[in-house]
DNA sequence: TACAGTAGAGAACGATGGTTCTCCGTGCAA
DNA sequence: TTGCACGGAGAACCATCGTTCTCTACTGTA
């Protein structure tokens, strides 16, 4: 097995375990067992557990971006593309192993003690906001709407995680629709005056 | 020192330490040092660290409710009372030691391993939603608005915590105002038709 | 003064976990 | 075949931490 596939197996296994049980609750030996890669090899690929956590977060960042972009691309109009973000959340919340946002969870667990983890989480959230901002601008809406939609998305994630009820996605979607339409109405009003 | 004040000192000290550094990062010995209460005493008051964590969360729940209710009471109109929730968040986010919502952080850290902690967090969030629901009904708005406002509040908390920027409160407040006004307009429209 | 009971300081204990090390088997080169 | 570099399995090491225990000091009482 070459380094690349070993690395992949370790990251995938660690992701699964960390997400399901939390980082502290999972020992490196459990990662070794799940990944079927020796501890020696793991430590040759990742200098420390902290580095592995960061690698897992980067991996999740890519996965998330890929899935989100696919969901958005499937929508027809700019307005639907904005709301597709929340449909994407809805589908995610309904998955059996949904346990909230891995980034928010990791931040709560390690943000105070690991600057590298805190930075990885910050980067992911910033990237998401940037992505939403792009969608908002396509719609010709003011930038502030992007921040509002991002806040709705974050709130839906924590609410769904803690309450265990996926309904938060639909509620956030409805709120997003109201915000978007209100901004559209204001824009049209402004342009017609 | 009687049991009650000892208990208070321990909970207050543990709250400060857990919030600042996370639960795992703080040993019971650090709690003992900060609270100036012997380990023996601590363990006679709380059977385990987990029980202490739950006690801290309950303490925070009361503190939060008290502060929020005071902020809401200071507002004049029902609409202002709804928005006062976000002004309360704004003031909180600007505090020097703000490190996000302790409940969300604790859930991320321990929710997967400690049912008692998960339940305490769930209870706090449910109580908050219930409180917002009361304010929304005072305004004569449909219940769904309460869920939307609660999601905005949660999103503002995680966004402010991760980005480190208190602006999320003002952005959420603006979104809340739009949602409330839209609901009011729909209501008036419905009653005038 | 002698004593019983309590509480505190801090050592001790047992478990766990991150990280490193040792030992062994394997495959490859000459 | 011999020697060697490599990788794996898992023990070992060291630190930390939750929890308990021991020993000592002190308080109030007869």
From TrEMBL, chains A, B:
Residues 4-64 form the HTH tetR-type domain. InterPro entries: Homeodomain-like_sf, HTH_TetR, Tet_transcr_reg_TetR-rel_C_sf, TetR_C. It comes from the Bacteria. Residues 27-46 bind DNA. Keywords: DNA-binding, Transcription, Transcription regulation. Coiled coil: none annotated. This is TetR family transcriptional regulator. It comes from Luteimicrobium album.
């Amino acid at each position: 097995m070459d380094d690349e596939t070993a690395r992949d197996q370790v990251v995938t296994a660690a992701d699964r375990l960390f997400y399901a049980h939390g980082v502290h609750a999972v020992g490196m030996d459990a990662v070794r067992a799940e990944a079927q890669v020796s501890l020696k090899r793991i430590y040759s690929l990742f200098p420390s557990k902290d580095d592995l956590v960061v690698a897992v977060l980067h991996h999740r960042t890519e996965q998330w971006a890929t899935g989100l972009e696919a969901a958005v691309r499937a929508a027809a109009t700019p307005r639907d593309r904005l709301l597709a973000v929340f449909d994407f959340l809805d589908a995610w919340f309904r998955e059996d192993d949904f346990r909230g946002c891995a980034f928010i969870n990791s931040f709560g667990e390690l943000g105070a003690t690991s600057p590298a983890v805190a930075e990885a989480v910050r980067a992911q959230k910033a990237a998401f906001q940037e992505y939403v901002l792009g969608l908002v601008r396509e719609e010709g809406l003011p930038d502030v709407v992007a921040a509002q939609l991002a806040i709705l998305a974050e709130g839906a994630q924590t609410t769904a995680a803690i309450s265990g009820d996926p309904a938060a996605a639909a509620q956030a979607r409805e709120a997003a629709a109201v915000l978007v339409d209100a901004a559209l109405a204001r824009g049209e009003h402004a342009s017609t005056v």
